[in-house]
Amino acid sequence: MALSLKKGEQISLAKTSGTTLTAVRMGVGWEGIKKKGLLGFGAGREAVDLDANALMFDASGTLVDQVWFRQLQSKDGSVRHSGDNRTGDGAGDDETITIHLNRLPQNVVTVILSVNNYSGQSFNRIETAYCRLINEQGEKELARYELAGQGDHNGLIMASLKREGTDWTFKAIGAPASGRTYHDNLPDMRAHL
């Protein structure tokens, strides 16, 4: 059974899973925006292009590497993106990022997970979106964060993974940001390192 986290809540991944985790997967899912038609014509869904990002930082807050739709794998191969979904069509996770915690370079102490709406609509128009963290061993969902925040922002700093010795903690952040790519959100991420 997954934990449902709210903004600011955090969990120890080792304690939650019962064992030391070696790999986790962040899944992001969403649906397109419902369009209302006139007399039944023109109804449907407007495509939404949300993009999942994993940004790796060292202890000094320097961006070491990034995984996003233009770089689907980290330089050392420890983090992989499933590929860019530009519509949100289909059930389940629309984009995933797999993080092999035991293979991350030792200088990486924080991984920030974020989402940007490349198509530009604000999150107050998106009705259904979530982020979840899954233990790759056994496919057990460890945490789920519903992206129910309303606002005129089109980016969201969703969560962080922080190294604490041999353990990692997962913190639901849910901080609004603006911009079509993670580059626009880097200044806002500094507060969460």
From TrEMBL:
Alphabetized CDD domains for the sequence: TerD_like
InterPro entries named in the record: Stress/Tellurium_Resist, TerD
Classification via Pfam families: TerD
Superkingdom of origin: Bacteria
Domain spans labelled TerD: 1-177
PANTHER family, A to Z: CAMP-BINDING PROTEIN 1-RELATED
Annotated protein name in UniProt: TerD family protein
Species per Swiss-Prot/TrEMBL record: Deinococcus arboris
